Each structure stands twice: as C-alpha cells, then as structure tokens.
Amino acid sequence: MSIRPPKIVIVGAGSAIFGLGALSTMMQSRQLRGAHIALCDTNEDGLRTMTRLAEIMNEAWGTEATITSSTERRDLLPGADFVVVSIQVGQREDVWEKDWQIPLQHGVRQPYAENGGPGSFAHAARNLPVILAIAHDMEELCPNAWYLNLVNPLIRLTTAIHRYTKIKTIGLCHQLLWGYAMAGAVLADRFGIEVPEHFHVHTDADNMPSFIPVARAAVENIEIKAAGINHFSWVYDIRDKKTGEDLYPELRDTWLNRYRKDFEPLSREVFEIYGMMPTAGDSHMCEYLPFVSEPTTRPWEKYDLKLQSWDGNRRRRARRWELAHAIVDGKQQVDELRNVWRLDMLDEGIPEMIGALHYNEQHYHQQLNIPNEGYIPNLPNDAIVEVPGIMSAFGAQGLSFPPLPDAIAELCRRELALSSLVVDACVTGDRKLALQALTLDPMVHDLDKARAILDSLLREFEPYLPQFA
What we know:
Blueprint: E1 7-11, H1 16-27, E2 36-40, H2 44-61, E3 66-70, H3 73-76, E4 82-85, H4 92-105, H5 118-141, E5 146-149, H6 154-164, E6 168-171, H7 176-186, H8 188-191, H9 208-221, E7 222-229, E8 232-240, H10 248-258, H11 265-274, H12 282-285, H13 299-302, H14 310-328, H15 350-359, E9 363-371, E10 384-392, E11 395-398, H16 406-428, H17 431-440, H18 447-460
Parallel strand pairs: 1-2, 1-4, 2-3, 4-5, 5-6
Antiparallel strand pairs: 7-8, 9-10, 10-11
C-alpha cells in the first residue's frame, strides 16, 4: 500500500520574500508530486496572487498538486501533515526599525536588534502569540503534523512551541550558508572561487548578488559540520568535499595571519580568541556577545557592524511582487522562477525535509533547531540547539558533538537562559519576568534603562501584545 502524498499548509504564503522561493522549490520537487499544498495568509491580495502563481506553476511544471487557499488557517489545517510557518506581526521593516530606535532613545545602541538585545524581546513578544495560536489550532485539527518554524527569533519561538504545546516542531534557518561563504572567501585561492573586491557577508538584500555566488561555490567544494545555537553556531569540522582533507589548519592560518583584516573582523577576532570559527557572520553573531554595545568605545565602529538595510528590504519585496504579478498577468514566463538562486532567493531545503519525514527518504540536513538530547553535552538538556541531523519517518535525530569549549558554552548558556525567560514572560504577559529578561540582556547595563525600554516597547507595540494588556 503506497503512502498518500502529504498535505502541506503554508502559513505566510502571501509573502513575496518567502512565498516565491518556497512555492518554486515545492512545485519542482519530485518528492512532493501530487501533494496537497494549502496556502494561508491574512493578506487577501497577496494570497490571491500567490495562489494563482501556484496554479500556473502546477500546470506548467506537471506537479499534479492540489492547490487550495484561505485567509483562515483553521479551514486548511484539518488533515495537514506539515505546517510551514513564515509570518511576521507588523510590517517587518517598520517594526524592526522601531525595535532598534526605541532602546537607542534610552541610551542602548544595539548592533542589529533582531535576535538579540532589547529589540529582540519585542520581536519575540509580537510574534509569539500567533506562533502559539497556530500550534494550538494544530493540537485540535492536525495533532500529528510537523510544525516547521522559519520565524525569528528562532530559538525563542521554537522553544515556546516545544514548551507550551504538544506539537512536533523543528526550527529552520539557512545561516550556515554564511559560514560557507566566509570559509569560501578565505580559501578562495585553493578552490578557484571568484570573490568580489571588499566582499563581506552582511545579511542584507543589496549584498545578496555578491554573497550568493561565493556561498554556492563554497558549498560545492567544502563540507562543514557545525553546532551550537541559532545564529551562534561553531565549526567543529571543515573538509575538502572531494578529498576529505581537513581544512581547519589552513583556514585558521590563512584567516588569522594572511587574509584581509577588514573581512568580518569580529568573527576573525572571536575565532582567534575562542579557537573555533563562528558561522553566522558578524551581523548575527554580535547579537549574543556582551562586548559589542559599549557606548564609550563604540565597538560597532571598530568592527564595522552594519545595521539591516530596511529600505533595501523594501526594494527587494517590491521587485519580487513585480515579478509575481508579471507572471500572473502573462507578461513573463513562469520558468523565470525555476532557479531561485539566480533571483537572489535562498533554497531552504523544505521539500527534501518533508519528503524524508513523510516517505522515509533518509535525508541529512545541516541545520536543525531541535531540543537538546545530549547532542551538545555541556548545553542544557531540552533547550533548542542547532545541530545537523538525519531525517526520516522516524523523525529528526540530531548528531552528537563533543562539548563546546567552556567560554563558548557559557555564552550559549547565557543566551538560552535569557531566551527561556523571554518565552515565559511573553507567554504569560508577566512584566516582572520581562524586566528580569532585560536585565539579563548583555546589552543592558542599567536597571532604570531596562525599565524605561520595557515601558516604551510595551507602549509602542500595545496593539500586537494582548498578553501584556
């Protein structure tokens, strides 16, 4: 008896940033042929466009899928095998900019304000009620389905699903690609990789055309095994993909002694001090460090820590909507979407994961954010850690690693403890817990500032924070 094709609900499908790439890879997937793909978004216009686009892909590429859509997720969840979630509460660039500006008004200058710092508290608090509401609906309507979470702050939101619901969840992130890009740039001469002048790996829409070719070339030539926590992962092993040669000695010597000093300078210095290469790039790794927000020495200038380009993201969204509408209106061919990399989109590997979990097709995935079951022995058990693993119908089994060096482990433990407090505060609406969380934040050094920042964030985002009402 053959297994029926899976039903996949995509919540947040009406987003041009996520929806185009996700639909393209799913519709081209051998594993997902004949699947039921159900699209959900509260943006009716965006959902209508993406639904029509999915129908065009389905017909042109012979996917034989069933396409349905609704603005109400409860209409789509019954019978689901997988629920893929990529949502944001509030217009992403607008609220992100406020996450950065509000603490600055109280004297706290965050280096990025997405997954760490006081802004990340607000980011988690806004998204968490919806993230949990989806999981609670799943408990009722599709209790055996997998919740694939692509929403940041990834550690915190995946922790909330794991802690407060019975739903199976995996947090997904593509940040290891930044580790590949850094290693590829440093080892470019060995592998003949073309690296643009002044190359860096800042996570920014305008940098993607330079970043993606280097990252892809590195993936073709290099194999990395890394573990830690999301956006704070560490290279345990790096090898030549073709020969198996250990590249760590060459990487270390080249980057620390002979390579450009201005290339990801914070990652370089952390590599030198702690002895392991961090994978996330300066922009993301800096969010968990206690020495990047000192107002007197201004380390963000020393390390050239770049903020997100919110206008760049707006331009990227506009370009993708133009492409989606052009295809739907018949002005461009749908095959424009076959190669997502060419369009500066990232392949998240979702079809391969779903195929493995549903059809028992063994699949090695390089980044799984899952509860720690001894995978990293000196990080807290049951905390959400990031490790590679094997996926099959048996579930997601992480690979086990030796302990992290003590100093790195302590930095990880601090962030996990902070994330745990943030989750409990944002679920319960407990302001005292929220204040405790801000006092643990490595960027906050004054109690009065912590109180003032918390009050301002809760006031600014009150419409999105029913739990704190």
